[in-house]
């Protein structure tokens, strides 16, 4: 199970501020997943080509099972993560963005500004999270119960979670 966390931020990629969201995602995964996996992190600038080329490389060359991105989902001119996703995904999974926006509204009214989405390309599942560190745990707690089954359905690696942290749901039969 190979997982890659991609932080998408002009300023974090230039070292103007420290990337907090990428490490938060890695820590969350380490707490929640009990089966063998490895996780690597990348930090890239915002922008359509930057995000598209990174995601295609991770899916088609690196054959990563799960890609979690953070940042670039808002309405600002340089926020082009959703446009890049549209160029990369073969199947969009709209429920991920819908659930994360719904749950995030309890935290902030600006949750509706995130255009985060998810989907698959080959045997890779890609999920966007907002850039704000405060969004990470909330969004992962919300959507992760469905991720092991999704990975199973697309023929990616199998994943087990600690039921005290995340109860994965797998339909029987
Ligand atoms: N990866 C991150 N680590 C730490 N803080 C972050 C991260 N991403 C976003 N933030 C925080 O959330 C704020 C808003 O994030 P947003 O993604 O809108 O940044 P931005 O204004 O588009 O600029 P940039 O893309 O250069 O980070 C940032 O100013 C920063 O304080
Ligand atoms: N849970 C949660 N979702 C959130 C936020 C947040 O603080 N918590 N910030 C919102 C804000 S202010 C913006 S602009 C959008 C897009 O952020 P991004 O461009 O960093 O991805 O995510 C939104 N979703």
UniProtKB/TrEMBL annotation:
Pfam families: MoCF_biosynth
Signal peptide: none
Pathway the protein contributes to: Cofactor biosynthesis; molybdopterin biosynthesis
SUPFAM superfamilies: Molybdenum cofactor biosynthesis proteins (SSF53218)
Coiled coil: none
Domain MoaB/Mog, residue spans: 4-150
Keyword set includes Ribosomal protein: no
InterPro entries: MoaB/Mog-like_dom_sf, MoaB/Mog_dom, MoCF_biosynth_CS, MPT_Adenylyltrnsfr/MoaC-Rel
Reactions accelerated catalytically: molybdopterin + ATP + H(+) = adenylyl-molybdopterin + diphosphate
Enzyme Commission no: 2.7.7.75
Origin: domain of life: Bacteria
UniProt keyword ATP-binding present: yes
Enzyme class, broadest EC rank: transferase
Keywords: ATP-binding, Molybdenum cofactor biosynthesis, Nucleotide-binding, Nucleotidyltransferase, Transferase
One MF annotation (Gene Ontology) recorded for this entry: ATP binding
Listed GO biological process terms: Mo-molybdopterin cofactor biosynthetic process
Biological role stated in the UniProt entry: Catalyzes the adenylation of molybdopterin as part of the biosynthesis of the molybdenum-cofactor.
Family: Belongs to the MoaB/Mog family.
NCBIfam families linked to this entry: molyb_syn, PRK09417.1
Protein name according to UniProt: Molybdopterin adenylyltransferase
UniProt organism field: Cohaesibacter marisflavi
């Amino acid at each position: 199970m190979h997982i890659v966390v991609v932080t998408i931020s002009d300023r974090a990629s230039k070292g103007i501020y420290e990337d907090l969201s990428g490490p938060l995602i890695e820590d969350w995964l380490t707490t929640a997943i009990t089966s063998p996996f490895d996780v690597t992190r990348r930090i890239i600038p915002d922008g359509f080509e930057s995000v598209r080329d990174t995601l295609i490389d991770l899916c088609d060359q690196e054959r990563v099972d799960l890609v979690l991105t953070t940042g670039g989902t808002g309405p600002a001119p340089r926020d082009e993560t959703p446009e890049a996703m549209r160029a990369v995904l073969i199947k969009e999974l709209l429920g991920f963005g819908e659930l994360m926006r719904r749950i995030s509204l309890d935290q902030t009214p600006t949750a509706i500004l995130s255009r985060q989405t998810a989907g698959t390309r080959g045997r890779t599942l890609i999920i966007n999270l907002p850039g704000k560190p405060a969004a990470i745990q909330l969004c992962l707690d919300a959507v992760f119960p469905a991720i092991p089954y999704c990975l199973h359905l697309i023929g990616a690696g199998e994943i087990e979670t600690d039921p005290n942290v995340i109860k994965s749901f797998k339909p029987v039969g």
